[in-house]
Amino acid sequence: MLDENLSLDEVREFFAHDRFATEACGCTVLEASHGHAVCAFDIEPVHRNAQGNIMGGAIFTLADFALAVACNMGENPTVAVSNTIEFFSVAKGSRLIATADADKSGRSMGFYTVDVADDLGTKVARMTATCFRRS
């Protein structure tokens, strides 16, 4: 179980092992508590697709990273078993922020919503996820 009373630095240290999200995409944890997380990355050229917009995979990676933090804080090891993402708008700002919250957090299953916006408040995407907890 990941202790929900860890400091933000300790949470960042633990999730630094999500190397694709943290090293390749630049995702960082801004807030972390039981059933809640906020993560972000500064938009860099590597995040852009051929049309100059943020690649869907980069947006999904940020949402999935925020989900991982939210669903594991104070819980047994938890993994996503199903995700759905809808893309609303192109990002206009210089940073993407994902906010993950538990809709229902049970003993073996959890249901989460992750909203992704840019730093200007543009709603970029929403991911819903079903997660499984090992007991």
**How many domains make up the 3D coordinates?**
1
Structural class: alpha+beta
Major β-sheet strand ordering: 1-2-4-5-6-3
Overall, the morphology is: globular
Strands, total number: 6
Averaging pLDDT over every residue, what do you get? 97
Terminal CA distance reads 10 Å
The CATH class designation is: Alpha Beta
H/E topology pattern: HHEEHEEEE
**Oligomeric state:** single chain
Helix content: 10-25%
State the helix count. Answer: 3
Question: Nearest-angstrom radius of gyration?
Answer: 14 Å
The CATH level-2 architecture is identified as Roll
Instruction: State the CATH topology.
Output: Thiol Ester Dehydrase, Chain A
Name the CATH superfamily assignment. Answer: Hotdog Thioesterase
Strand content: 35-45%
Q: Main beta sheet: strand number and arrangement?
A: 6 strands, antiparallel
Low-confidence stretches: none
Any overview of this molecule?
With 135 residues, the chain is α+β, with helices and mostly antiparallel strands. The chain has a single domain (8-133), classed as Hotdog Thioesterase (Thiol Ester Dehydrase, Chain A), CATH 3.10.129. Helices cover 23% and strands 41% of the residues. The chain has 3 helices and 6 strands. Strands 1-2-4-5-6-3 form a 6-stranded antiparallel beta sheet. It is globular.
What would a concise description of this structure say?
The protein is an alpha+beta fold.
Question: How do the helices and strands line up, and which of them pair or pack?
Answer:
Elements lengths: L7 H8 L3 H6 L3 E6 L2 E7 L13 H17 L5 E10 L7 E11 L3 E10 L4 E11 L2
Antiparallel strand pairs: 1-2, 2-4, 3-6, 4-5, 5-6
